[in-house]
Design brief:
single chain, alpha+beta, 3 domains, 5 helices
Length: about 350
């Protein structure tokens, strides 16, 4: 019988595509072998480089151990006063050095160079040779009469933030406690970056324990002293849990009393020379005070001038300001000046 035939079968079978796929599969293995061969060549090259470098290092080590190398020569010294070291050109052998005398150290210290006066800082921080003290001194003119100038603490800047105010002791943030026998305790919060002294006074007055805080004048008429007054029994200050130094910074710690406590000292810094000069110029006696340069160009001479003769000092003076600035001993009538 006739065989079965399927016509057109091979006409639709893509033999070239099949061969290409088989070739691609085989090529993947070949590519992997090529990559491994490249890696092997790279390792071989790296190892060869290391061999070259180690060979160079070995040559240099051998050179260091030779007699012409600094490390190949050493020194030994006996006795005192002499040290020795060998370089590559040092000759071999032993040498003798006779030490007849050893040098001794010599120094010279000069006196301090006068610095310019810091007229803006408190008097006790202004670079005075003799620090001016708090108290009063007298100035006058033959035509304008006399005036008493009072030297002491500045008026406290109660409106400024506590971290920018003129406290002699910087206030710290935290809490402090005030109590009255009839009203109990009140814890006052202090934030030096957001509160002023006025804010703290307001907080005390609003604490509800019957205490009124106020800022009073010191003996020289400047507002810098904190006072607490109670209408609700005796006042007690502080507690073991306090974390702010407000009570000590305002000098309330240690204040004695019952229903009224007054700080033991002003809380603000001492006046500056500029402050004292302003007081002199505003005294109304016809004297003008200023700071002038010395022969070295440094501003450290206090000068006083007036249209009529100047008189300085009084037996009742309690501040050494005139002597500390040396104007008390300066010559002249209508003008006086001397180094501070």
């Amino acid at each position: 019988s006739d065989p079965v035939r399927i016509g057109g079968f091979f006409s639709s079978f893509d033999t070239e595509a099949v061969i290409a796929q088989l070739t691609k599969v085989r090529q993947v293995r070949i590519d992997k072998l090529n990559v491994e061969a490249l890696r092997a060549d790279a390792r071989k090259t790296a190892i060869a480089g290391l061999v070259t470098r180690f060979s160079s290092l070995l040559s240099k080590v051998k050179a260091l151990s030779s007699s012409t190398s600094a490390s190949g020569k050493s020194t030994a010294v006996s006795g005192t006063g002499v040290n020795a070291a060998a370089d590559p050109t040092a000759a071999l052998g032993s040498f003798t050095v006779d030490v007849t005398r050893l040098a001794t150290g010599t120094s010279a210290t000069g006196s301090a160079i006068t610095a310019a006066l810091d007229a803006a800082s408190p008097l006790d921080e202004s670079n005075f040779q003799t620090t001016p003290t708090s108290g009063a001194f007298t100035i006058g003119t033959s035509g304008g009469g006399s005036a008493t100038i009072k030297v002491g603490a500045q008026a406290v800047n109660s409106a400024a933030l506590l971290n920018a105010s003129n406290f002699a002791t910087a206030v710290t943030s935290g809490t402090f406690t005030i109590s009255t026998s009839g009203g109990g305790p009140a814890v006052i919060n202090v934030d030096i970056a957001t509160q002023s002294l006025d804010d703290i006074v307001t907080a005390i007055n609003g604490s509800g324990i019957g205490v009124t805080a106020s800022i009073a004048n010191d003996t020289y008429g400047r507002a810098n002293t904190l006072v607490l007054t109670s209408t609700n029994g005796d006042i007690t200050l502080g507690d073991s849990g306090d974390t702010s130094n407000f009570l000590s910074a305002t000098n309330l710690s240690g204040a004695t009393g019952t229903t009224t406590l007054t700080a033991t000292a002003p809380m603000s810094r001492q006046m500056s020379l500029n402050d004292v000069i302003a007081e002199i110029n505003g005294a109304g006696v016809g004297i003008t005070a200023s700071i002038t340069n010395d022969s070295n160009g440094k501003a450290n001479i206090l000068s006083l001038s007036a249209a009529t003769s100047i008189t300085l000092g009084n037996t009742t003076d309690t501040s050494n300001f005139l002597s500390a600035t040396n104007v008390l001993a300066s010559p002249g009538t209508t003008s006086r000046s001397e180094h501070r």
